[in-house]
## 1
Amino acid sequence: MKPAKVLLSGGSGLIGSALIEALYFQSITTLRLVRNRPDPFRGLVRWDARASDLDQFLPSIPQSFLPLDAAIHLSGASVAGHRWTPAYRRELRESRVATTQALCKMLVGMPQPPGVLVCASAIGIYGNRGDEILNESSRPGQGFLADLCQEWEAAAQLAEKAGIRVVHLRFGVVLSKSGGALAKLLPIFKLGLGGNLGNGEQWMSWVSLPDVVRAILFAVETEGLRGPINVVSPNPVTNAAFTRTLGRVLHRPTILPVPAAALRLIFGEMAEETMLASERVVPMRLSDEGFRFQHEAIEPALRAVLAD
């Protein structure tokens, strides 16, 4: 069933911004949780997960936005691009686990809770698994990121126990020229300085931004979906194949690999668990429910997102 009123947290990021546009064009009323510049009559409500108070929050919501049909939770500090210092590890955990717990407490405390909560997660939960094909029934992996994702998903148990249908969106590498990994790579590749990361043999599970937005809405509307779903294309590629394809699309050489040792030196454990980790993930649950990707192959996907 198509929702009429949706609560959204994390609307300022790459995925959230694209989702807001899609919700607008589908005439879905959206209540956004923000930290700055609230405007309740435009659906922008101030909310701080670390100091959330339901008694103060609920009266700030215009009644025209209630009751909510669904909640979509996309908040979380960026995993990539930072060394995982002890302080940044705390920020990663608080921005995911603590906010999810606080949001679930808020939703459960509403006079009429939404029927579904769709929460961001990541395929990092599987860890570095070589050539193993991974689906939603695969066991979690090892490492900081895998542990963090498990805590992140477990944080929504309060909502599940209250009868809310909970879906965990395990995102792969999201392709967009507006942000994320691809946007960071484009200036380097356009200069002809791109190349494999390490030996390039690690598997990369990717998905286009338009398909991410479609998958989120599909998860909200599909009653049969609950628990984890992998939001990735059915066709993962190795880093070497991705590198060659991006170079071909941009008409640039890709002959300058970045040694794994250099990545480890610069980024430490973050490089080991993201840039160099091999995660060959497939979207079994989405496929079983009849979801069809607009972009299934890497070259057409890159051409599409770079042409937008």
## 2
Amino acid sequence: MASTNFFQLATWGCGILAGILLLTTLVLWLRQSERRFAFFGYTAFSVVLTAGCFALTLTPITRPVVAGAAPYTTVYDQGSNRAVIAVSPDITPAQLELTLRQAASNLFSSGRFSQGSPVLTITARTVVHPAPGISEPIVLGSLQQSLMRRQDPEAHIEIFGGAFDHLEEIRSHS
């Protein structure tokens, strides 16, 4: 990833700067120079800067984008092991699968906790209006993946074909 390479390079550069400042500070300290305290501060700041750049190399800053995923809105998420997203009623089953994968990537957090289940469950739903003043929520599918992996190759995706049939029926009556 490009941002990781940038921060690796920045860590390397800041580390060299910190080493040079450390040597300079040691020389100034041994000579009892008036500037030794200033250089101690410069050195400490450069060490903190190096540690910060190193930390940014450990975790990606940007989230991966799943090509073909449709826009969605998170409607329920308490940071636990369940979340619900809302999608457009015009979504196709293929787009829904990609959208669930995108949501799983975006909603993944190592800080999520579970109460007995190490699985993150994301449910996708839409709301249709079969008649004026009537709203009908329809659950279109769900994804279950490990709470330990952002890109879980064993994620289980279930698309509810009956829900899409019902959606098509409502559209044909409108």
## 3
Amino acid sequence: MQIGNLKLENTAVLAPLAGITDLPFRRIIRSHGAGLVYSEMISANGLIHGSPKTLRMLDSNPAEKPLAVQIFGTDPTIMARASTMVEAAGADILDINFGCSVRKIVKTGAGVALMRAPEAAAALLKAIRAAIKIPLTIKIRTGWDNTGVQALELARIAEDCGVDAIAVHPRTATQGFRGTADWSIIKAVKALVSIPVIGNGDIICAEDAIRMQMQTQCDGIMIDRAAIGYPWIFSEYLARINGGPDKAVGLSDRIDTMIAYLKATVDYFGDETHACRAMRSRLGWFVKGMRFSSRFRESITHISTQAEAVGIIRAYQYELQEWEEKEKNQEKLET
């Protein structure tokens, strides 16, 4: 998939997820095959005012490239200045958020609020396009009603303003993440514009991603919540579209990924206590639906060092292996 002057190695994209898609998480997702990863949504105001916490969100690493950094805001001048900061920080793509439906963002006129202000959206995109040379993308919703009229209008405006690709999450502003994504909106946007269209919404497994592409003819697929705790969704999707064999995700795969994610987080924060505090909930993502998972999640609620966390992860691995061995022995006895 070609976005502006950037050619991606495949069509699988990690969506921006607030509080989740930080540098360590993006590195894990890239290692499982995603062709492009997105940062968390970043405040343009926070960037130009030099907020240390906001500026830290621009941190990147060669292992995660290519990287799209998403920003939000309403003022064309501020957004243009923030865009140049993103470009200078080494982002491969700049993305503008037109889809966030969180009340505090919408109240400022940013996010999905811009979808009912086409003139303001056009002014914003023109200012940003004039300020940067890297590819420019946007992420949109269906709009404020389910007709998709606002999505189509904004898509047309975006293409005219020099936007290089559009990601479409076909839920309305009021739906949030509830209900069902209307993939027909993705298809309609794809039929309208000549730039790449990336489909997003209700991709729970690799088969969903393939079905979306077949139904909408979108150029790429964007995976969001399904990637949390299951980065293998990317490699499974790529295996299917390339005709390769399915590879079952085993216990050792999960354990190795959890430890790699833990290490990447500790390396990123440079503070074991801070990193482990963040991982108290995140490690639990990877054991969802597994035997003894509630006990594991309870055991990691107080971790404060990497060694302690690894010890608990390994203990969980051994517990599962022992249970599997007992199950096998029981089956032999019964036969």
## 4
Amino acid sequence: MVSRKVGFVGLGVMGKPMAFNLLKAEYELVVYDINPIPVQELVNAGASAAASPKEVAKSCPIVITMLRNSADVETAVCGENGILEGIQPDSILVDMSTIDPLVSRHIASLISEKGASMIDAPVSGGEPKAKDGTLTIIVGGNKEVVEKCKDILNVMGKNVIHVGDIGMGETVKLANQVLVGVNAVAVAEAFLFGIRLGADPQTLYRVITASTGNSYVLQNMVPYPGITEGSPANRNFQPGFTTELMSKDLDLILSAATKLDTPLLITSIASQLYHGAKACGLAKKDFTSISILVKKLVDLDLSS
């Protein structure tokens, strides 16, 4: 039987609600984050705090990491007082961050040298689904190791899909991000086009969601307020998934594509738009705030 003692490193926008769901499911949780505020919130709810990722790994047979980028994961695992220094033989590292697949494979090899195992299990669904435990979790790694983690993953996600060996979780997640990032730009442009010609946004939404242009982004994140319940536009683009995180994911995709001599032209254009959105102050807004930049580019007047 897999231990019900679980370590959790990274309590940000996604990690904190995921950790809370494990507590609600009565897992014994040991947590760490560089920010003491979410750590204290989890402790108040029944978790134990650790002083470092190393301390988490020393005390927990399963350690989950949920961090912002490849560098943060490498620091938490390989840095001073990192997970590698504390992980025990036969333990399992479950990295749920979205990072470079090659970094995942490198870290997995280091974990293996310690007699432990690793799976990569990035998620899709954003903060709302992290809160209600209905994330899609895309898992790469040894099948037997994945099975040992299934009960824990099922607490945090509704769809847990094993897609291959280590690194394939990241690969499939990033392929998904191509479509999400590009589609948000396309939705913004489609609505801008229709509205400029006099169409009502509600009418556009009703017709397109019943037509071939329909998508998840359109159905749930139309960038105009009052059209769909739960759209970030209804709350001034307060994030479920930020612009800077989408930009980070697209940069990861393009970096990997460059190494493979695989041109991704539309993704490259979308990536530049998200970088522009960050430069315009939208980094911490929801990624669908890209619609603000799309509109500003049309309205920009450089004649004066």
